[in-house]
Amino acid sequence: VSTTVVVIGAGPAGMTLATLLQHSGVPCVVLERRSREHVAQRQRAGIVETRAVRMFDSWGLADRVLGGIPYDGILEIRVDGCSHLVSDRDGSDGPVARLCPQQVLVQKLTETFLEGGGDLRFEAADVSLHDLTGDRATVSYRTPDGTPHALACDFVAGCDGDRGVSRTAVPDGVLTAHAFDHGIGWLTVLADAPPPAHPLLATGPHGFAAHFPRGPHASRYYLQCPPDDTPDDWPEQRVWDTLRTRLGDPALGSGPITDREVFRLRSLVHDPMRHGRLFLVGDAAHIVSPMGGKGMNLALYDADLLARAVRDFVRDGDDTALDTYSARCLRRVWNDQEFSHWLTRTLHDAGDADPFLRHLALARLDRLFHSPAAARAFAELMTGLDPSGGA
Ligand code: FAS
């Protein structure tokens, strides 16, 4: 059997790409390892940035695929208990960011794709890629009953995340991995607890904490912790006590904790994001610390570029955008890596770092809170509309 694009992975990258390809009349097949139920409940990101909202809007899909509520653009940064509000409003016209939980976006994209007759195959096992530099590529896999299948295609989109199979199909020495480990651990907690009025980042002598909305009755929290901690080191009472101390809010509401994991803040970029007929999209190509809220939004950016590039090739035989896909994605990836790195370093150094670094970080925040030019630059980075990241 053959198609134009085989999309591996049905997360934000895969389902955005598949829906945009479908919208462009380009045939594709999506192969997802897990079940629909499992993918639908995977809770991670919570903000679709302004640029991504306008991207869906430009495709005429925003109302169909974006749930949640408009984001008022206000971010609260609390330094040593003192609150400062910064805004992502940059004065540009058009729809604004949305507080749309990642699983809501993925569910709506999946519904839209399937309602449009899309070919999405869940529980596809042992996916493997072949002939990526030949005249046509082949993707083989097994259905749950063990039956082997093979799909011939013009392009393979590796949307299978950081631990997927597509990147491993690239011969050694082709990709360069640029990795950075901040040496910082975060405990991330999901709870059915009242969300904050605005996304909140807090830093001070007791360390970093954050509180984000994840729907009308849920919250995601982050707590800086030793990188080698495990969730067992953080029983419920310690979580709430530490959050109340670091957020400077003794009356912080609590609720049942529904997920808890510890991870190291790390960044990773694979270059190039293409090998022959394989195009890497989203986390399969890059990982960024959640601080800047850019991980999922970068996946949406890559998917938009690849959909337009494949459409240009299929419709007009023009492969220019395919040839420049990797360079254009990487320009934004590094721009967002730099923003996330800056924010991660600043908010952690302003807390319990060595005195000189702490003063540097406090000076950066002071500039952000008092200089209109610094606030505007920050707003552009928050919205994703900054021109330095590419169109
Ligand atoms: P995903 O990992 O989401 O999806 C990959 C898909 O491929 C999965 O469905 C997987 O099952 C499938 N797959 C894997 N291997 C396969 C195989 N061999 N065959 C077939 N299918 C396969 N980002 C933000 O922007 N803001 C945040 O606040 C934020 N918070 C986060 C919190 C946590 C705890 C984590 C872990 C991440 C967070 N992120 C955040 C980043 C995250 O949202 C990713 O950027 C986003 O999921 C990337 O989407 P995809 O590239 O589609 O990868």
UniProtKB/TrEMBL annotation:
Pfam families named in the record: FAD_binding_3 (PF01494)
Domain of life: Bacteria
Keyword Oxidoreductase: yes
GO MF annotations in UniProt: FAD binding; monooxygenase activity
UniProt entry keywords in alphabetical sequence: Monooxygenase, Oxidoreductase
InterPro entries given in the database record: FAD-bd (IPR002938), FAD/NAD-bd_sf (IPR036188), PheA/TfdB_FAD_monoxygenase (IPR050631)
Domain FAD-binding: residue ranges: 3-335
Entry-linked Gene3D superfamilies: D-Amino Acid Oxidase, subunit A, domain 2, FAD/NAD(P)-binding domain
This protein's name: 4-hydroxybenzoate 3-monooxygenase
UniProt organism field: Streptomyces griseorubiginosus
Taxonomic lineage of the native organism: Bacteria, Bacillati, Actinomycetota, Actinomycetes, Kitasatosporales
